[in-house]
C-alpha cells in the first residue's frame, strides 16, 4: 500500500495541514513513531567532553575523529557563550577509516602541541573513531614513544561514542577520564582538606561562580573540578588568551586526596560518581541541582553534613531575601501550567522549584533521560498536589512536545532556544533556561542556582508572563500596577 | 549511488602552487585547528535549503543533534527543511545495521510531514557500518509517493567542498529534468549556489522582477523541489557561489546546452556586472537596454544612500577571511566603501576564486597562508586592522583582540546581496567600526595608565 503524501495544494504548510498537525489524531500518529527522531533535544558525547575539558587550566580539547564534528562543537558552544572556543581535531578521513586513526593522532598531537602550547590535552573521540575501534591509550603511548609529544606531557583521554547516550554522558566520561589519567593515587587516609565540587554539564559560567561564592561563604576550602567559568566567560583585556583559566593542574592531580566530593548533578556524572565513591572510597555526596529555595537549602545542609561547617548568617539573610522575592511574585506563578524540556538534572531542579512556587509542571520532555530519571521525577511530582497533572516523557523529542502543546495547552514553555518555534506555534511565551541559548544575550551570565538563582528565575518567569499580558491585553486592562 | 570522487576531477583542479591557495584535494593538517567542516556538512548546506523537502540525517545524534536549524537559509513559504530529522542511531543499530530503521523513518516522515521529496544523508557511522542507504531508499520508495533521494557524502570523505559537489551530482542525476515547466519563458534563469542566507535572495529579486527576468529555480536558497526539477528548461545558469557547484553548471551545459555565467550579487559593481551579463547572455536587445537603465538608476540611488558611510569609512583597513564567492566579491564591495583589504585568505573556495581575489587585492596586501587560529592571531597583531570580515567561528576571537568584526557567513542575520543589500552592508560596517565600545576597550583602568 502506498502512502499518498501529495498535498492538497502547492504548499505543504497550508491551512488544512497546519490544523491537522494540531489534532489528537495527528498526535497519535506522531507518538507512534519508532525510527524517526524530529528536533532532538540532545547533542552528542564529544560536545559534553569538550565542555568538561575546557575547565582545566591550560587544557586544549583534542577531537580524535572527523573534522566536521569539531567544527560543529565549536560553533555550538561559541554561539551560546559568545566566546572563542579553542579545540583541535585530527581530521580523520577515508584512509584513516580504513587503516585506523593512529597516524592522524600522532601528527595531530605533535602539531597541536607545537602550535598552541597547551599545558595538557584532553583527547576524546567522535563516533567514526569508535566504530573502527581506535585504541586511544595505545595511540597516545606510541605518540610519546615516537617523540611527537614530550614523555611527561599530561594527556587525559576518554572514549565518547555518540551512538551511546548524549552530551551529558560525554561530560561524565571525560570527567572520569581526567581523574583516571591525571589524578595521583590516594595517600591512604590522609586528605588535603579540600572539598571537590563537580558541576556536571553546566553551560552557565555564572552557576559555577555562584557555587564558589556559596561554598566560600560557608568557609569550606573548595576546588571546583572542572571549573570552566573563566574559559566560558573571559574578561576583555585586549589580549586573546587561549587558556584564560580553569582548575589548576595541581588541584586535578590532588583530587583523589580530597576530604570529600560533592556532585551537583546526578545524571551527568553517573559513572564518575561510582568511580569516586565506590572505587576510590572517598566521602561523596550527590545533590539535586540547587535550583529554587528548597534545593539550595538541601545543598547547604549537605555541605554542613559533610564538613561540620554551619550555614553562616549572611546566607541565611540571602535565603530570606529569596523567600521574600518568592512571596512578592507568587501570584504570577501559582496555578499556571508549564511545559519543560532539557537535560535530566536541570529538569529535576526546575520542577522542584516550580512546585514550591505553586506552578504546575504538565509536560516534561527529556530526550536524554533514562528510566531512573523518570522514576525520580514521578516521585517528585507525586510529592506535591501541584504535580498532579505532570507527565514525564523520556526519549521523546521536541516534535512529540509539539503535539502535547497543541492537544493539551499550557501557559508557558521552559527550555533552551530550540523551543522558540514550539512556543510560537502554541501561542505561549518561552522562558529560556538551559543549553543552547543562542537568541538572547547574557542569560548564561546570571546564575539560576542558589538563592540568587531562585530570585533570577522568579523574575524571569513572572516578568515573561507580565510582558505577555502587556503585549496582548485590551486598553482597559492595560495597568500601571501588575 | 556513490559519486566517485575521481569523477569530480578534484585532483585535476588542484593546480595552484600559490601560498595560501585552497587545498581542494589536500587533507586538513591534523591538530591544526577545527575550522573546517566536513563533506556531510557541505552536502547539507547545498540541499537543505530546499524548503518543502524533508531532510533525514541517517546517523547517530552527533550530525543532526549538533546542527539542525543552524544556518540562516530562509524560506518564504514552507519551513519543513528546518526540522531536525534523524534516525538517531544507537549502539544496537551500529552492531546490527540501521537500514531497516532508516526505511521506517522515511515512511514515518512521509506520514507525519507530507514533504514534496525526502533527501537521506549518509554519515560517517552509517557508511562505516555498511548501511546501504540507496537500497533503503529504494525499499521505502515502494511505500512513499514522493521521490526518496540518497545523498552519499559521509563526513570522512573530506572537506565541505567535496560534499557541495556530491550534492550537485545528486541533483543532476535524480532531480533536474524530471518535470517540465508549464510555460516557456524567454528570460528564465536559474541561480546556482545562492543559499538565501539571511534573505540575500530577496535583495536580488526586485531587480529581476523589474527587468522581467524569471527565476525558474533557485538552487537552493528559498528553493522548491518542483521548481528544481524544471531547472533544465532555463535559458541560463547563473553560478552565484562557484565554490560549491561548478561541476553542476558544467554538466548542465553538456547535457542541455545551457550556458552559464559566474556572478556575484555582493556590492554595487558586482551586482551591476552580473545583471549586465545576464541580459547579454539572454541576448534580447530591449532587455539589455532596460538593464542598463535599471543599473544606472539603482547605482545612483544606492551610491547616494551609502555616500555618507563611505566618507566616514574611507581609509579604514580590513582583513578578509571567508569562502566561496565572497572570497573575491567582498574585496570589491569593501573597496566601494573606501575600505582597503590588508590581507585576504580562504580555504573554502575554488582556485579560480582564489586567483580572482589575488587579482583584485592590492599587490602589497598579504595572502593569509596560515589559516589556523594561531596564524590568525599573529596576523591581527601584526596588521592591526580596523575591521575583520569573516565567519562566526572567528567572531569572538576578533573581539578579544579589540578588533571590530563583521560576520559575513551563515551566522549573520542581515542580507547583503543586491543593491538593497549594499545599503544594509554599509550600515552594518559603519555600525561595527564606529561603535563606542571599542573606545571603552582601549581605555586603561584604573585611569592614568597608558591608553592602548
Description:
The complex is a heterodimer of chains A (482) and B (452). With 482 residues, chain A is an alpha/beta fold. Helix content of chain A is 46%, strand content 12%. Chain A has a five-stranded parallel beta sheet, sandwiched between helices. In chain A, strands 3-2-4-5 form a four-stranded parallel beta sheet, sandwiched between helices. A four-stranded parallel beta sheet of chain A has the order 7-6-8-9, sandwiched between helices. In chain A, α17 links the parallel β11 and β12 (391-394). Chain A is globular and about 75 Å long. Residues 1-13 of chain A have low confidence and may be disordered. The longest helix of chain B is centred in the middle third of the chain and has 29 residues, at 285-313. The radius of gyration of chain B is 23 Å and the shape is globular. The interface between A and B is large, with 88 and 90 residues. β1 (37-38) of chain A pairs antiparallel with β2 of chain B, so a sheet runs across the interface.
